[in-house]
Amino acid sequence: MVKVLVLLLLYTSAARAAFRFANYYGDHMVLQRAPAQANIWGYVDECAAVNITFNSATISATVTPDGGTECRWIATLPATDAVTPFTITATSLQGTITLADVLFGDVWVCSGQSNMQFTVPQAFNASEEEALADKYPNIRLFTAALMASDTPVEELLAVEQPWSVASAKTVGGGNWTYFSASCWFYGRNIYDVVQYPIGLVDTDWGGTPVEAWSSPDALAKCGKYTSSRKADGKAPSPDQPSVLWNAMIYPLLNMTIKGAVWYQGEANAGDPSTYNCTFPAMIDDWRGKWKNASQHTSSLFPFGFVQLAAYGSDNSSSFSPGFPVIRWAQTADYGFVPNPRLRAVFMAVAMDLGDPSSPFGSIHPRDKQDVGLRLALAGRAIAYGDSEVYFTGPLATTATMSTDMQEVVVEYTSLAGSEVELRYSYGFELGCSDATWLDATATAADSNKVMVGVPACAAGAMPTALRYCWRSDPCSFKLCPVYSGDLPSPPFQMNLT
Ligand SMILES: *[C@@H]1O[C@H](CO)[C@@H](O)[C@H](O)[C@H]1NC(C)=O
Ligand SMILES: *[C@@H]1O[C@H](CO)[C@@H](O)[C@H](O)[C@H]1NC(C)=O
Ligand SMILES: *[C@@H]1O[C@H](CO)[C@@H](O)[C@H](O)[C@H]1NC(C)=O
Ligand SMILES: *[C@@H]1O[C@H](CO)[C@@H](O)[C@H](O)[C@H]1NC(C)=O
Ligand SMILES: *[C@@H]1O[C@H](CO)[C@@H](O)[C@H](O)[C@H]1NC(C)=O
Ligand SMILES: *[C@@H]1O[C@H](CO)[C@@H](O)[C@H](O)[C@H]1NC(C)=O
Ligand SMILES: *[C@@H]1O[C@H](CO)[C@@H](O)[C@H](O)[C@H]1NC(C)=O
What we know:
The chain has two domains: about 105-380, SGNH hydrolase (Rossmann fold); about 395-495. The N and C termini lie far apart (about 60 Å). Strands 2, 4, 5, 8, 9, 10, 11, 12, 13, 14 and 15 form an eleven-stranded mixed β-sheet that branches. It has a four-stranded antiparallel β-sheet with strand order 1-3-7-6, with no helix packed on it. A four-stranded antiparallel β-sheet has the order 16-17-22-21, with no helix packed on it. About 20% of the residues lie in helices and about 30% in strands. The model is unreliable at about 1-15 (pLDDT under 50). The radius of gyration is 24 Å and the shape is elongated. By secondary structure, the chain is an alpha+beta fold. Strand 14 (about 305), helix 9 (about 320-335) and strand 15 form a beta-alpha-beta unit.
C-alpha cells in the first residue's frame, strides 16, 4: 500500500509538464501565518501568465523560464493569521488549479536521521497516541520520501505522505514511514499552547551523517569536501556529502517556514571531532539559504534539536565514546554560556531517556514523548518568546578547584526559581595531567553549585579537568545525578579554573 502510494506520487521530469503546484503543495496543507508571508509556486508551460486568488485578493505570479518550454511561477500571498480554511486558486491560459482546505499556521521542518524518522507506531503507548491524533485536525502532516541527489533539485523527487489531516491513520503509517514521533510530539505540544494550526514537514533519513544534509558552502566552512562527488552513473548513497541537502532540503527552500527541529548525530559519533564545526555551519547555512530563497523566512529562524539520547546499556567509557563528544559539541551550539555560538537555537536533553530493550535497538529509544515535550518547552521559550516557561536543566559554566584542593565547585546557570538538584553522587570524573580520569563523588548542592570531592591523582600528576556523564549511556531511566525540576543537566567536560 505504501509502495503504491509512493509510485503514484513519484514525479519524473517527463510527467512535469502542464500547469501545477510544486509537489509539496497540496490540499490540507498549512502555509506560514502572519507576520510572515507564505510563498506558493509551481510550473506552467510556455511561461503563460498565472494569477492567484486568495482571500478575495488577486495576485499575479512571477513567471520565469526553467529550461525547455517549461516555466516556473511563484507568488507571495498577503500575510494572514485567519484560522479558517482557505481555497487558493491559480489560473492561467492552461486552466485553473486549486489548493483546498489550506490553513495558516506555523510550519516546522523536522529533519535528521533515524531517531527523527522513528514513527509514532514505534513509540511507547503507540495505539493510545495514534487514537489521540484524531483530536488534532488542525495539525497537518507531510513526509518527504527518502531521496538523494548529486545536484540540487527544484522540487522533491518523491513524496512519501502528501499533506494530511492528523489522525490515527496519518500518524500511524508504520515503522520508519510516517509519521515521525519526535516531530509529532513536538508539534502537538506546541499546538496545545498556541491553539492555531501547525504544519509539520518531515524530511529525514536513518543512518545519515550531518555532511549529507549540508550544502557544499557549509562543508567548505569546515574545510570539508571542497569538490563535489564525481558523477559515476550510480545513484548517490545517502551518506555522501550534500546529497540529502540537494534532494530533501534544497527543494523546500522556497516555502516560508517558522523554524526547524533536528535529531541527528549518531552517524557522526564514529568520528566526532568536526561536529563542533559542521553542525553550527549547517544551521547558519540553512538559515541563510532559506532566507535568500524564500525571502519571507527569518534569517535567524529558530532551530531546535535533540541532544543524543542514551545508547547501549554499558557504563564503560570505551562503549561508543563518540556519543559524549557529540553531545558536548551540541551543548556548545545550544548556547553554553558565556559564549553561545548561535542565537535562537534550542535543545532537548535526552541522555536519561535510554531504552536498552528497544526492539529497534538501544540506539532508538521508544520514549519520544519526553523528547517532544522537552523540545517543545524549549521551543516555547526560544521560538515563541514565552518567558514564563521552565525549559532547561542547569547548564554548567565553570569548574573551580577550591583553595584547599579538597573539592571542585561546579557553577551552573539555571532559570529563575529553579535550584540545582543533586539526586545522586556518581557521574563526575576528575581529569589528571597524566591523561587519566578518576571517579569523583559529588557531595552536596547549594543553590546553583555542586561540590565534587577530589580523588588523588597518581604521584606527579595534577588535577586539570572535570567531566560529567561522559558515557554513551550515563544514566538511563531518568536516573541522572543533576536535574532541576524534571529537566536534566547536560553533560560537560571542562578544564579546572
Ligand atoms: C490575470 O489578472 C489580470 C489582471 O486582473 C488580467 O488582466 C488577466 O487576464 C488575468 N490572467 C489570467 C490568466 O487569468
Ligand atoms: C514494527 O516493528 C515491531 C518491532 O520490531 C514489530 O513488532 C511490528 O510488527 C512492526 N510493524 C510492522 C507494521 O511491520
Ligand atoms: C525560488 O524561486 C525563485 C523564483 O521562482 C527561483 O528563482 C529560485 O531558484 C527558487 N529557489 C530554489 C531554492 O528553488
Ligand atoms: C572542536 O573539537 C575538536 C576535537 O574535539 C577540538 O580540538 C576543537 O578545539 C574544537 N573546536 C571548537 C571551536 O570548540
Ligand atoms: C545569501 O545571499 C547573499 C547575497 O547574494 C550571499 O552573500 C550569502 O552568502 C547567501 N547566504 C547563503 C547562506 O548562501
Ligand atoms: C557507572 O560506573 C561508574 C564507574 O564504575 C560508577 O561509579 C557509577 O556509579 C556507574 N553509574 C551507574 C549509573 O551505574
Ligand atoms: C504510557 O502510558 C502510561 C499510562 O498512561 C503512562 O504512565 C506513561 O508515562 C506513558 N509513557 C510515555 C512514554 O508517555
